[in-house]
Structure formats: structure tokens, C-alpha cells
Amino acid sequence: GQNIDQPTEMTATEGAIVQINCTYQTSGFNGLFWYQQHAGEAPTFLSYNVLDGLEEKGRFSSFLSRSKGYSYLLLKELQMKDSASYLCAVRDSNYQLIWGAGTKLIIKP
Amino acid sequence: IAGITQAPTSQILAAGRRMTLRCTQDMRHNAMYWYRQDLGLGLRLIHYSNTAGTTGKGEVPDGYSVSRANTDDFPLTLASAVPSQTSVYFCASSDSSGGGYNEQFFGPGTRLTVL
User: Fold this and answer.
1) What is the pLDDT of residues B88-114, one digit of tens each?
2) Which of A41, B28, B45, B76 makes an SS bond possible with B21, Cβ 3.0 to 4.6 Å?
3) How far are the Cα atoms of A68, B32, B33 from residue B48, in angstroms, in the given order?
4) Under a CB-based contact definition with an 8 Å cutoff, are residues A83 and A74 in contact?
5) Of A52, A26, A37, whose CA–CA distance to A87 is shortest?
6) Residues in B 24-63 with any Cβ partner in A closer than 8 A
7) Measured between beta carbons, which residues in chain A are less than 8 angstroms from residue B108?
8) Nearest Cβ partner of B107 from A42, A89, A100?
9) Interchain contact B94–A (C-beta under 8 A)
């Protein structure tokens, strides 16, 4: 079967750095996405990785290792507005997205 | 309209009733999707459409039907609602016709309660 695993919840301090991990087992791989979802709102696109390595976009970076079936999202200089759920999704061989259950990130002052 | 709109925002529905959730996008995206999101579970694909006139089944299609008569609209119909269909429903679209990430853009969601 297809499976995406992420921690259910993480807590971090404002101004700090946090790493959210995602491991996957899917039928085929055509890219990995990270989305941010604030409570009661729609998911919004953060990043995309299809090749191994690190993609940096401002305070957010995303890493991919295809051989390990592993990705992480790194958030730097945390702000209170970063409190949200972070969703990992893999595009499979049918070009459909398989979604993890999301990681709820709580930022404390 | 800018992006994707969904209607209604929320709805309480009696079991056995028929309900259509509406979704409209103005980005001229060829692909559209319907997901449901339940607590503790990832987004689950109900139905999708790669282009106007075609539809396909996702992971959890039972009890739902869709149509794609044109590029912009992708309604989701519950023929006879059951309590297990209580969920938040998201419509999404993507442009898979060219290069780029082909990321999906989401509507604001419809919160549906079936009693």
C-alpha cells in the first residue's frame, strides 16, 4: 500500500528553527510537495522537490532523499503566524497526490 | 472571481437527501479534484478530472459522483447522504498542460454535516 508518515504534532519557540520530517512509501514517485494549512483554511503550496537535495525559499527549505523515501521541511526564524499544519504529499505513478495526515506545529512565545 | 470558489461554505443535511457541492475556477486549469479531509487523516481524493469531459475515481469515490461539462466547473454530488460523509470537502485545480510544478490550488472548502 501507499503510506506517508509525519509526526502528528510539534512544538517550537518563536525565533527558533524546526524540522518536520516526512517518510513515504508510494507506487512510483513524481515529486514531493509541502503545503501549509492554517486552522479552518485551505492548504496553500509551500515547496516542491523532485530531485535529491535542498530547495530553499526564504525562511523555508525542503529536502528530499529519494533513495531513503524521506523529506523534511525546515522552518527558520519561527514566527507566531507559522502556527499551522504542514502537509506532505507525494505524486505517485498515476500523477495523483498521496497525502500525509499533516503535522500540527505549535509556536510558543 | 480570483482562483477557486466553493459553495456552500457550510451545510447541515439530513441523511438520505441529495446534495451538490459547487466548485468554480477561473485560472483555466485543465485538471480539477475533489478531496475530503477528516480529523487525523490526510486529504483523500474522491474524484478527479484531467480535462473537460473526462472524470476518474479517486481513493474514496463510493457515494459521490462528478461531472465536468466545461473547464471552469466541477460539481460534486452526494446522491443520498449518509452520516459518514460528514467532512470538510476541498476542491482543487492544477495546470498539468505544460512544465512547472503542477501544484494544486485549493478552494476555501465546504463543511458538510450529515445528520
Assistant:
1) 999 999 997 766 678 999 999 999 999
2) B76
3) 30, 6, 4
4) no
5) A37
6) 40-45, 48, 58
7) 41-42
8) A42
9) no
CA distance linking residue B19 with residue B72, whole number of Å: 20
In sequence order, the 6+-apart residues with CB closer than 8 A to the CB of B43 are: A43, A87, A89, A97, A99, B35, B36, B37, B90
Instruction: Give φ, ψ of B79 to 5 degrees.
Output: -70, -40
- The reply to whether omega before B61 is within 30° of 0 (cis) is no
Is the link from the previous residue into B83 a cis peptide, with omega within 30 of 0? no
Pick the closest to residue B22 from B109, B88, B83, B94 (CA basis).
B109
A96 contacts in chain B (CB < 8 Å): 45, 48, 58
Rg of chain A (C-alpha set) = 13
Q: What does the buried/exposed string (b/e) look like for A19-28 if buried means 16 or more CB atoms within 10 Å of the residue's CB?
A: ebebbbebee
Size of interface A-B (CB pairs under 8 A): 41
Q: A53 φ, ψ to 5°?
A: 125, -170
> pLDDT digits over B33-86, tens only?
999 999 988 899 999 999 999 999 999 999 999 999 999 999 999 999 999 999
Chain A residue with minimum CA distance to B100 = A48
Q: How far apart are CA A83 and CA A109, in angstroms?
A: 11
Nearest to A34 by CA among B101, B33, B82, B3: B101
